[in-house]
Amino acid sequence: MNAGAKNVIWIGVGVALLLAAFVSPFASSAPDGLDRFAEDHGFAAKSTAPGAALWTHAPVKDYATPGVKNPKLATGVAGLAGALGTFVAAAGLARLLRGRKKSTGS
Amino acid sequence: MHIPDGFVSAPINIATYAVSAVALTIAVKKARRDLDEGAIPLLGVTAAFIFAAQMLNFPVAGGTSGHFLGAVMAGILLGPFNACLVLALVLVIQCLVFADGGLSALGSNIFNMGVVGGIVSTHLFYAIRALAPKTRVGFMVAAGVASWCSVVLASISCAFMLALSGTAPLRVALPAMAGVHALIGVGEALIASSVVGTLIAVRPDLVGAWRGERAAAGAES
Protein backbone atom coordinates (compact mmCIF):
# COMPACT_ATOMS: atom_id res chain seq x y z
CA MET A 1 0.00 0.00 0.00
CA ASN A 2 1.48 3.35 -1.01
CA ALA A 3 1.72 6.53 1.05
CA GLY A 4 -1.33 8.18 -0.54
CA ALA A 5 -3.59 5.27 0.30
CA LYS A 6 -2.17 5.13 3.84
CA ASN A 7 -2.99 8.82 4.30
CA VAL A 8 -6.59 8.22 3.26
CA ILE A 9 -6.81 5.34 5.75
CA TRP A 10 -5.57 7.57 8.57
CA ILE A 11 -7.96 10.35 7.56
CA GLY A 12 -10.74 7.75 7.70
CA VAL A 13 -9.68 6.67 11.18
CA GLY A 14 -9.63 10.34 12.23
CA VAL A 15 -13.13 10.92 10.85
CA ALA A 16 -14.44 7.82 12.66
CA LEU A 17 -12.89 8.91 15.98
CA LEU A 18 -14.21 12.48 15.63
CA LEU A 19 -17.73 11.25 14.80
CA ALA A 20 -17.71 8.79 17.70
CA ALA A 21 -16.32 11.32 20.19
CA PHE A 22 -17.99 14.58 19.25
CA VAL A 23 -21.09 13.82 17.16
CA SER A 24 -22.45 10.74 18.96
CA PRO A 25 -23.45 12.72 22.10
CA PHE A 26 -25.85 14.70 19.90
CA ALA A 27 -27.39 11.73 18.07
CA SER A 28 -31.14 11.16 18.26
CA SER A 29 -32.16 9.35 21.43
CA ALA A 30 -35.52 8.28 19.96
CA PRO A 31 -36.04 4.49 19.84
CA ASP A 32 -34.84 2.81 16.63
CA GLY A 33 -37.16 1.06 14.17
CA LEU A 34 -37.20 -2.25 16.05
CA ASP A 35 -37.49 -0.71 19.55
CA ARG A 36 -40.28 1.53 18.37
CA PHE A 37 -42.17 -1.43 16.94
CA ALA A 38 -41.62 -3.31 20.22
CA GLU A 39 -43.02 -0.38 22.22
CA ASP A 40 -46.02 0.10 19.91
CA HIS A 41 -46.90 -3.59 20.01
CA GLY A 42 -46.32 -4.13 23.68
CA PHE A 43 -43.42 -6.56 23.68
CA ALA A 44 -40.60 -4.14 24.61
CA ALA A 45 -40.59 -5.43 28.20
CA LYS A 46 -39.55 -8.89 27.00
CA SER A 47 -35.95 -7.67 26.69
CA THR A 48 -35.79 -6.72 30.37
CA ALA A 49 -37.78 -9.68 31.71
CA PRO A 50 -35.97 -11.65 34.43
CA GLY A 51 -33.76 -14.30 32.90
CA ALA A 52 -33.88 -12.80 29.40
CA ALA A 53 -30.33 -11.47 29.44
CA LEU A 54 -27.56 -13.95 28.72
CA TRP A 55 -24.73 -11.50 29.29
CA THR A 56 -25.02 -8.91 32.06
CA HIS A 57 -21.39 -7.83 32.43
CA ALA A 58 -21.12 -5.31 29.61
CA PRO A 59 -18.77 -2.70 31.09
CA VAL A 60 -20.19 0.30 29.17
CA LYS A 61 -23.93 -0.29 29.10
CA ASP A 62 -25.80 1.77 26.48
CA TYR A 63 -22.64 3.70 25.57
CA ALA A 64 -22.55 5.55 28.91
CA THR A 65 -19.05 5.50 30.39
CA PRO A 66 -19.41 4.51 34.05
CA GLY A 67 -18.28 7.15 36.53
CA VAL A 68 -18.71 10.07 34.12
CA LYS A 69 -21.55 12.28 35.37
CA ASN A 70 -22.12 14.45 32.31
CA PRO A 71 -24.15 12.25 29.92
CA LYS A 72 -22.79 13.86 26.76
CA LEU A 73 -19.21 13.40 27.94
CA ALA A 74 -19.99 9.81 29.01
CA THR A 75 -21.25 9.01 25.49
CA GLY A 76 -18.36 10.79 23.77
CA VAL A 77 -15.74 8.94 25.82
CA ALA A 78 -17.46 5.61 25.16
CA GLY A 79 -17.64 6.39 21.43
CA LEU A 80 -13.99 7.38 21.20
CA ALA A 81 -12.78 4.31 23.09
CA GLY A 82 -15.17 2.04 21.19
CA ALA A 83 -14.14 3.30 17.73
CA LEU A 84 -10.45 3.07 18.61
CA GLY A 85 -10.90 -0.40 20.09
CA THR A 86 -12.88 -1.52 17.04
CA PHE A 87 -10.11 -0.29 14.70
CA VAL A 88 -7.47 -2.19 16.69
CA ALA A 89 -9.63 -5.34 16.91
CA ALA A 90 -10.48 -5.39 13.19
CA ALA A 91 -6.94 -4.63 12.01
CA GLY A 92 -5.66 -7.22 14.50
CA LEU A 93 -8.12 -9.82 13.20
CA ALA A 94 -7.09 -9.08 9.61
CA ARG A 95 -3.41 -9.42 10.54
CA LEU A 96 -4.11 -12.69 12.33
CA LEU A 97 -6.03 -14.08 9.34
CA ARG A 98 -3.38 -12.98 6.88
CA GLY A 99 -0.86 -14.86 9.00
CA ARG A 100 2.70 -15.26 7.81
CA LYS A 101 1.92 -15.40 4.14
CA LYS A 102 4.65 -14.14 1.84
CA SER A 103 4.30 -10.44 1.24
CA THR A 104 2.99 -9.77 -2.26
CA GLY A 105 4.95 -6.53 -2.51
CA SER A 106 4.37 -3.52 -0.31
CA MET B 1 -32.21 -3.08 14.38
CA HIS B 2 -30.02 -4.76 16.99
CA ILE B 3 -32.27 -7.43 18.50
CA PRO B 4 -32.04 -7.55 22.32
CA ASP B 5 -32.44 -10.71 24.40
CA GLY B 6 -36.03 -11.88 24.78
CA PHE B 7 -37.50 -10.94 21.39
CA VAL B 8 -36.47 -14.02 19.41
CA SER B 9 -37.12 -17.61 20.54
CA ALA B 10 -34.35 -20.07 21.38
CA PRO B 11 -34.90 -22.32 18.32
CA ILE B 12 -34.63 -19.34 15.95
CA ASN B 13 -31.57 -18.02 17.78
CA ILE B 14 -29.88 -21.42 17.64
CA ALA B 15 -30.67 -21.79 13.93
CA THR B 16 -29.32 -18.33 13.10
CA TYR B 17 -26.21 -18.91 15.24
CA ALA B 18 -25.58 -22.03 13.12
CA VAL B 19 -26.11 -20.27 9.78
CA SER B 20 -23.99 -17.30 10.86
CA ALA B 21 -21.24 -19.64 12.05
CA VAL B 22 -21.16 -21.32 8.63
CA ALA B 23 -21.03 -17.93 6.87
CA LEU B 24 -18.21 -16.75 9.15
CA THR B 25 -16.27 -19.98 8.66
CA ILE B 26 -16.38 -19.42 4.89
CA ALA B 27 -15.44 -15.77 5.43
CA VAL B 28 -12.42 -16.74 7.56
CA LYS B 29 -11.28 -19.32 4.97
CA LYS B 30 -11.56 -16.77 2.18
CA ALA B 31 -9.76 -14.13 4.23
CA ARG B 32 -6.90 -16.51 5.05
CA ARG B 33 -6.47 -17.15 1.35
CA ASP B 34 -7.04 -13.70 -0.11
CA LEU B 35 -6.24 -10.91 2.38
CA ASP B 36 -3.30 -8.79 1.33
CA GLU B 37 -1.17 -6.43 3.41
CA GLY B 38 -3.21 -3.38 2.35
CA ALA B 39 -6.45 -4.95 3.55
CA ILE B 40 -5.31 -4.88 7.20
CA PRO B 41 -5.70 -1.13 7.83
CA LEU B 42 -8.66 -0.94 5.41
CA LEU B 43 -10.53 -3.58 7.42
CA GLY B 44 -9.68 -1.67 10.59
CA VAL B 45 -10.89 1.69 9.34
CA THR B 46 -14.07 0.22 7.84
CA ALA B 47 -14.96 -1.42 11.17
CA ALA B 48 -14.16 1.75 13.16
CA PHE B 49 -16.24 3.89 10.78
CA ILE B 50 -19.19 1.48 11.00
CA PHE B 51 -18.96 1.42 14.81
CA ALA B 52 -18.91 5.22 14.95
CA ALA B 53 -21.67 5.69 12.36
CA GLN B 54 -23.92 3.18 14.14
CA MET B 55 -23.87 5.48 17.19
CA LEU B 56 -25.23 8.36 15.12
CA ASN B 57 -28.99 7.80 15.21
CA PHE B 58 -30.83 10.23 12.97
CA PRO B 59 -34.54 10.96 13.40
CA VAL B 60 -37.00 9.48 10.92
CA ALA B 61 -40.79 9.73 10.98
CA GLY B 62 -42.82 9.93 14.19
CA GLY B 63 -40.40 9.77 17.12
CA THR B 64 -38.33 6.95 15.64
CA SER B 65 -34.65 6.96 14.80
CA GLY B 66 -32.33 4.92 12.66
CA HIS B 67 -28.65 4.63 11.97
CA PHE B 68 -26.22 3.65 9.23
CA LEU B 69 -25.64 -0.08 8.78
CA GLY B 70 -22.62 0.02 6.45
CA ALA B 71 -22.81 -3.59 5.25
CA VAL B 72 -22.97 -2.86 1.50
CA MET B 73 -20.40 -0.09 1.86
CA ALA B 74 -18.07 -2.61 3.52
CA GLY B 75 -18.90 -5.17 0.81
CA ILE B 76 -17.99 -2.71 -1.95
CA LEU B 77 -14.67 -1.88 -0.26
CA LEU B 78 -13.66 -5.33 0.99
CA GLY B 79 -15.87 -7.94 -0.70
CA PRO B 80 -19.06 -9.58 0.61
CA PHE B 81 -17.49 -12.07 3.02
CA ASN B 82 -15.06 -9.58 4.55
CA ALA B 83 -18.08 -7.30 5.02
CA CYS B 84 -19.80 -10.08 6.97
CA LEU B 85 -16.66 -10.52 9.06
CA VAL B 86 -16.45 -6.78 9.82
CA LEU B 87 -20.15 -6.54 10.73
CA ALA B 88 -19.86 -9.61 12.97
CA LEU B 89 -16.88 -8.12 14.79
CA VAL B 90 -18.67 -4.80 15.31
CA LEU B 91 -21.77 -6.65 16.56
CA VAL B 92 -19.71 -8.73 19.01
CA ILE B 93 -18.09 -5.59 20.44
CA GLN B 94 -21.44 -3.77 20.64
CA CYS B 95 -23.03 -6.74 22.39
CA LEU B 96 -20.30 -7.66 24.89
CA VAL B 97 -18.97 -4.19 25.74
CA PHE B 98 -21.93 -1.87 25.20
CA ALA B 99 -24.96 -4.14 25.83
CA ASP B 100 -26.25 -3.18 22.36
CA GLY B 101 -27.96 -6.30 20.99
CA GLY B 102 -28.46 -9.41 23.12
CA LEU B 103 -25.91 -12.22 23.34
CA SER B 104 -28.68 -14.78 22.80
CA ALA B 105 -29.66 -12.88 19.63
CA LEU B 106 -26.10 -12.34 18.38
CA GLY B 107 -26.47 -15.08 15.77
CA SER B 108 -29.72 -13.47 14.58
CA ASN B 109 -28.12 -10.04 14.43
CA ILE B 110 -25.11 -11.35 12.49
CA PHE B 111 -27.53 -13.14 10.15
CA ASN B 112 -29.61 -9.99 9.50
CA MET B 113 -26.81 -7.47 9.21
CA GLY B 114 -23.78 -9.56 8.19
CA VAL B 115 -25.29 -12.31 6.04
CA VAL B 116 -28.37 -10.57 4.58
CA GLY B 117 -26.89 -7.06 4.77
CA GLY B 118 -23.30 -7.96 3.88
CA ILE B 119 -23.11 -11.13 1.79
CA VAL B 120 -26.53 -11.16 0.08
CA SER B 121 -26.84 -7.41 -0.48
CA THR B 122 -23.29 -7.01 -1.82
CA HIS B 123 -24.13 -9.66 -4.42
CA LEU B 124 -27.27 -7.66 -5.12
CA PHE B 125 -24.97 -4.67 -5.63
CA TYR B 126 -23.01 -6.62 -8.26
CA ALA B 127 -26.26 -7.39 -10.10
CA ILE B 128 -27.49 -3.78 -9.96
CA ARG B 129 -24.03 -2.53 -10.91
CA ALA B 130 -24.10 -4.64 -14.07
CA LEU B 131 -27.21 -2.73 -15.18
CA ALA B 132 -25.90 0.77 -14.33
CA PRO B 133 -23.68 2.91 -16.58
CA LYS B 134 -19.97 2.16 -16.16
CA THR B 135 -19.27 5.57 -14.67
CA ARG B 136 -18.54 6.79 -11.15
CA VAL B 137 -22.08 8.16 -10.87
CA GLY B 138 -23.48 4.84 -12.10
CA PHE B 139 -21.41 3.08 -9.45
CA MET B 140 -22.66 5.46 -6.75
CA VAL B 141 -26.30 4.96 -7.77
CA ALA B 142 -25.86 1.17 -7.69
CA ALA B 143 -24.22 1.48 -4.24
CA GLY B 144 -27.13 3.60 -3.02
CA VAL B 145 -29.84 1.30 -4.35
CA ALA B 146 -28.15 -1.83 -2.99
CA SER B 147 -27.64 -0.11 0.38
CA TRP B 148 -31.32 0.80 0.57
CA CYS B 149 -32.20 -2.83 -0.26
CA SER B 150 -29.78 -4.12 2.40
CA VAL B 151 -31.54 -2.24 5.21
CA VAL B 152 -35.02 -3.19 4.03
CA LEU B 153 -34.07 -6.86 3.47
CA ALA B 154 -32.42 -7.06 6.90
CA SER B 155 -35.55 -5.56 8.50
CA ILE B 156 -37.75 -8.08 6.63
CA SER B 157 -35.54 -10.90 7.90
CA CYS B 158 -35.89 -9.45 11.41
CA ALA B 159 -39.69 -9.31 11.00
CA PHE B 160 -39.73 -13.01 10.03
CA MET B 161 -37.67 -13.85 13.13
CA LEU B 162 -40.13 -11.97 15.36
CA ALA B 163 -43.06 -13.74 13.69
CA LEU B 164 -41.51 -17.22 13.85
CA SER B 165 -40.74 -16.57 17.52
CA GLY B 166 -44.38 -15.75 18.23
CA THR B 167 -43.38 -12.24 19.35
CA ALA B 168 -45.47 -10.38 16.75
CA PRO B 169 -47.65 -11.64 13.88
CA LEU B 170 -46.04 -11.35 10.45
CA ARG B 171 -48.91 -9.29 9.01
CA VAL B 172 -48.07 -6.60 11.60
CA ALA B 173 -44.29 -7.03 11.90
CA LEU B 174 -43.56 -7.10 8.17
CA PRO B 175 -45.15 -3.77 7.14
CA ALA B 176 -44.05 -2.05 10.36
CA MET B 177 -40.39 -3.11 10.11
CA ALA B 178 -40.06 -2.76 6.33
CA GLY B 179 -41.94 0.56 6.37
CA VAL B 180 -39.74 2.38 8.86
CA HIS B 181 -36.58 0.83 7.41
CA ALA B 182 -37.56 2.00 3.93
CA LEU B 183 -37.08 5.49 5.38
CA ILE B 184 -33.90 4.62 7.30
CA GLY B 185 -32.60 3.05 4.07
CA VAL B 186 -32.67 6.46 2.37
CA GLY B 187 -30.11 7.68 4.90
CA GLU B 188 -28.16 4.48 4.37
CA ALA B 189 -28.12 5.00 0.60
CA LEU B 190 -26.98 8.63 0.86
CA ILE B 191 -24.14 7.84 3.28
CA ALA B 192 -22.91 4.72 1.46
CA SER B 193 -22.94 6.30 -2.00
CA SER B 194 -21.21 9.46 -0.69
CA VAL B 195 -18.46 7.43 0.99
CA VAL B 196 -17.74 5.21 -2.02
CA GLY B 197 -18.08 8.16 -4.44
CA THR B 198 -15.57 10.19 -2.42
CA LEU B 199 -13.16 7.28 -2.16
CA ILE B 200 -13.32 6.62 -5.92
CA ALA B 201 -12.50 10.30 -6.50
CA VAL B 202 -9.51 10.37 -4.14
CA ARG B 203 -8.20 6.77 -3.89
CA PRO B 204 -9.96 4.44 -6.36
CA ASP B 205 -7.49 1.66 -5.50
CA LEU B 206 -9.11 1.38 -2.02
CA VAL B 207 -12.53 0.51 -3.47
CA GLY B 208 -12.35 -3.24 -4.15
CA ALA B 209 -15.42 -3.51 -6.40
CA TRP B 210 -14.35 -0.50 -8.49
CA ARG B 211 -10.78 -1.80 -8.77
CA GLY B 212 -12.14 -5.18 -9.84
CA GLU B 213 -14.29 -3.85 -12.66
CA ARG B 214 -11.51 -1.54 -13.91
CA ALA B 215 -9.15 -4.51 -14.02
CA ALA B 216 -11.76 -6.54 -15.93
CA ALA B 217 -12.31 -3.66 -18.38
CA GLY B 218 -8.55 -3.33 -18.86
CA ALA B 219 -8.20 -7.04 -19.58
CA GLU B 220 -10.93 -6.87 -22.23
CA SER B 221 -9.45 -4.01 -24.22
Task: Throw out a few tags for this protein.
heterodimer; A: 106 residues; mainly alpha; 54% helix; B: 221 residues; Arp2/3 complex 21 kDa subunit ARPC3; two-stranded antiparallel ribbon; 2 strands
How does this structure look, described?
The complex is a heterodimer of chains A (106) and B (221). Chain A has 106 residues and is mainly α. Chain A has a domain at 1-27 and 61-100. Chain A is built from three helices and no strands. Chain A is extended. The model of chain A has no long low-confidence stretch (mean pLDDT 93). With 221 residues, chain B is mostly helical. Chain B has a single domain (10-220), classed as Arp2/3 complex 21 kDa subunit ARPC3, CATH 1.10.1760. Helix content of chain B is 76%, strand content 3%. Chain B has helices spanning 10-34, 39-54, 71-78, 80-98, 106-131, 136-164, 170-202, 208-220; strands at residues 58-60, 64-66. Chain B has a two-stranded antiparallel ribbon. Chain B starts with 9 loop residues before the first helix and ends with a helix. At the A-B interface, helix 1, helix 2 and helix 3 of A face helix 1, helix 2, strand 1, strand 2 and helix 4 of B.
What is the fold's blueprint, element by element?
The complex is a heterodimer of chains A (106) and B (221).
Chain A: H1 3-23, H2 33-40, H3 71-98
Helix pairs in contact in A: 1-3
Chain B: H1 10-34, H2 39-54, E1 58-60, E2 64-66, H3 71-78, H4 80-98, H5 106-131, H6 136-164, H7 170-202, H8 208-220
Antiparallel strand pairs in B: 1-2
Helix pairs in contact in B: 1-4, 1-5, 2-3, 2-4, 3-4, 3-5, 3-6, 3-7, 4-5, 5-6, 6-7
